[in-house]
Amino acid sequence: CASVFAGQTTVGATYDIAEPDVLEEIQAKATGVNWQAAMNRNKDSWSGWESTAVPEAQRDGESRFTPTYTLDFDVPDKTGNVVYPKGYQFNPLEYIQLPGRIIVIGKGEHQARWPKEIRKEGDIILTAGGDPLKLGEQLGQPVYLLDERGVKRFGITAVPSLIEQNGQEFVIKHFYVKAK
After folding, report:
1. Of 11, 131, 155, 176, which residue has the fewest beta carbons closer than 10 angstroms?
2. Alpha-carbon distance 101 to 121, whole Å?
């Protein structure tokens, strides 16, 4: 048996696909879900809302953090020659400039008020424990969850914090914000 389809020739026997269509299976499962109930359940139990806990600042402070990455493998070119050897270190800030600042806040109304006082156009807001949807509505811009990698990559030790790039390092300022 031979057939021609879209400019390709098939030679030999062809068979119908025996497996069920994955898209149809997903649609069938989705039809059986009570989406209203799922969306109304306690958001604190959603795994997507898990963030890293960061302590609140007890006083104003500042630190500096130089991000470096160390290769744990050789990076070869297309011919196999090693371009960057295992152990090579580099600072990504040598190659990029952040478009804005990063504001990191924690839980509580006093933490949510703080970005309103200091934010500028282009700032990104991260939360360590707050509800990003609720905070986004309050602040009028998207709010993202802070994870453990973010804490390590930026050297965050307390919230609220303001992170700014200064050349090839980050300046991390944390502030004491009194709860009312």
Report:
1. 11
2. 9
Q: Which is it for strands 143-145 and 124-127: parallel, antiparallel or unpaired?
A: parallel
Nearest to 176 by CA among 114, 124, 132: 114
CA distances, 17 to each of 14, 22, 28, 169 (Å): 9, 12, 19, 56
pLDDT tens profile 36-81: 877 777 766 665 666 778 899 999 999 998 988 899 999 999 999 9
Residue 22: pLDDT band (50, 70, 90) is confident
Structure-token match 């986004």, residue found: 136
Query: CA nearest 115: which of 57, 58, 177, 62?
Result: 177
Contact yes or no for 130/172 (Cβ under 8 A):
no
Please say whether the beta carbons of 170 and 161 come within 8 A. Answer: no
pTM tops 0.90, yes or no:
no
Query: Average pLDDT over the chain, rounded to whole?
Result: 86
